[in-house]
């Protein structure tokens, strides 16, 4: 995505232009789920070539963001030792259980602020191949790895570092005793890099391969995609929550202090770091992953599924006929999602969705309900009312999900921007370059000026969603 800072009567805003797009796929090899990181790298280079060709005034800087927690291990010569493993690989859950049995889970949460997701880097490292750890000299999270290949500088950007589960929430530095507990050397981790640090110019070979000017800077933007997306939420006032909606629905608020109470831990909330040291207090809800995996499964079975038609049919379907808890662990791994949804509904004595439209309706109703559950927990845990829900990210394009979320939560939903991660990434770079003033308020103002969210007011009775919540909670298998 190419971004252009516009200064006009409305203040500073960012105009985004899509220069290129490439898919990201997890690949199963020899019993392990990997990312195709070299495919991603090829996509980055191709994208930079396209962005450069589309920017007659040149490109000042590049910022890399991606999903969180995953990493590559490098040897002493800076060579990648193995293809990074995908966080959805099955190796993590047993390692988490082992480590949590040895540590005090509530104490760990209080120290790091991070929810005990099986895929946290700390648990992945506890499951890591010992020989690889012995040979490794350095660990880089995915965006830091790509930024290293672009600039030659090794960074450990702060927003993404917090998701490892290895950072002290109070000091923002690594907790070395957790490295020891997980069985790896703390010196694999470099010093944490403040968000917005200029890492340096691109390497000469990158300038040559992409046509970019040799002085194009690489900036450690908010490299965790959710941190970038939340940095771009066009919120006004403090009664707004966000849902960063894509593969996951990340439901939360931005705060200045973490909440690490046993109640927050039990409700599945986490405290990740945002740009400017803000805290993203949020819950991971399994998001549109359930739908995208279902579409993949139907296509593998030879069904010709058109997403727009499927969503239209799901919109016409009977509401709340059957609902699942999207956070049930059975939905976390790649696979035949429609079959798992059928099993769940059968086990809980609900009508079993048969057609793709019925299945999609079940998924979207269930996500809206899970959004409601997370917003209600959020209010209870923070003691602060939520009046408006901003849905940002690719999921904000899903009109049906936005409408159902307004209905289920009984709150106004403001949908968009859909490219919130790219916008937040660019906002942080623009601040690092001094094109936008420093601090969260200036960024938020520029985020608002850059977006035109669509409004969805809740329609219809709350009672059916209230009953469905009770039904879901009462029937959890
Ligand atoms: C969203 C996201 C979430 C993180 C999950 C795994 O893309 O980054 O914030 O919990 O992916 O990395």
UniProtKB/TrEMBL annotation:
GO terms for molecular function: ATP binding; rhamnulokinase activity. Residues 461-470 have a biased composition (Polar residues). Residues 241-432 form the Carbohydrate kinase FGGY C-terminal domain. GO terms for biological process: D-xylose metabolic process; rhamnose catabolic process. Pfam families: FGGY_C, FGGY_N. Keywords: ATP-binding, Carbohydrate metabolism, Kinase, Nucleotide-binding, Rhamnose metabolism, Transferase, Xylose metabolism. Residues 444-477 are annotated as: Disordered. It comes from the Bacteria. Residues 28-229 form the Carbohydrate kinase FGGY N-terminal domain. Belongs to the FGGY kinase family. This is Rhamnulokinase. It comes from Glycomyces terrestris.
